[in-house]
Amino acid sequence: MFKHKKHLGQNFLINKNIIKKIAEIGNINKDSYILEVGPGTGGLTQELIKKDAKKIFAIEFDKDLKPELEKIKNNFYNFDYIISDALTFDERKIFKKNVIIFGNLPYNISLKLLIKWIYSEPWPPFYNQMVLMFQKEVAERIIATSNNKKYGRISILSDARLNIKFHFNISKKEFNPEPKVDSTVLSFTPKKNNNLKLDDLNILSELTKNIFNTKRKMISKALKKILNEKELQIIDFDNIKNLRAENLDFNFYYKLVDLIKSRS
């Protein structure tokens, strides 16, 4: 019998109705390729198989789950899997387009995986949609907007390239073993006409790192370290100097990126 591994953040969703709801979020058709990260014992996998996608490929870290996945592979012609680390695995080796990513992401690597997919190049990326489950508190940070205490770097980096939709929360009681926190399902679609290149994302990441490091303080000191006098005038520094990082909306941070890019 399979034993859950706490250090891998394994908490498997056992409510079949919720599993079905998650599968239905995906815009799946006969030309879709599905990439599932962390299939576990295959609860969601088998629901996705019913959707008649062209191919379903799963990436699982835990080699002890191989027998469970092998059973599914033997029963369904359009399913395959690999035992690998999703953080380092190049998904484009498997699918190049029309991809929908599904994942009940382990809490300890969920943001790292999201950042990896935000940083996909070229853009628009290889995926059309992502349907992902996060720890509720992490999801609240991802979807937060300005003037919210949960608004921060991951909110801005996510918005920079993705349209995000909240779907529903899931009680911790619906998992085995039961985690300490509730979960949230979000979906993401790429902003296809996005002008933020990889270099721009790197600038945005560094900017927000510096500014949100002093999140509880007024923004004036951080901005003076980043911008010259002319640039401070362009952003109307006198009117915003007493604000905090969380009070400034997405467009403000994208404008900072443009200012820094225009120096060269």
How much of the residues is beta strand, in percent?
Answer: 15-25%
**Helical run tally:** 11
CATH superfamily label of the largest domain: Vaccinia Virus protein VP39
Largest pleated sheet:
7 strands, mixed
How would you sum up this structure, described in words?
The structure is a single chain. The protein is α/β, with parallel strands linked by helices. The protein folds into 2 domains: 185 residues, Rossmann fold, CATH 3.40.50.150; 64 residues, rRNA adenine dimethylase, C-terminal domain (Helicase, Ruva Protein, domain 3, Orthogonal Bundle). It has 11 helices and 9 strands. The strands form 2 sheets. Strands 4-3-2-5-6-9-7 form a 7-stranded mixed sheet. A two-stranded antiparallel ribbon has the order 1-8. It is elongated. The N and C termini lie far apart (60 Å). The model has no long low-confidence stretch (mean pLDDT 91).
What would you say about this model in short?
With 264 residues, the chain is of the alpha/beta class. It contains 11 helices and 9 strands. It has 2 domains: 6-190, Vaccinia Virus protein VP39 (Rossmann fold); 198-261, rRNA adenine dimethylase, C-terminal domain (Helicase, Ruva Protein, domain 3), CATH 1.10.8.100.
Topology:
Elements: E1 12-13, H1 16-25, E2 33-37, H2 43-49, E3 55-60, H3 66-75, E4 79-83, E5 99-104, H4 110-118, E6 127-135, H5 136-143, H6 153-161, E7 162-170, E8 175-176, E9 183-190, H7 198-212, H8 220-226, H9 229-234, H10 237-240, H11 250-261
Parallel strand pairs: 2-3, 2-5, 3-4, 5-6
Antiparallel strand pairs: 1-8, 6-9, 7-9
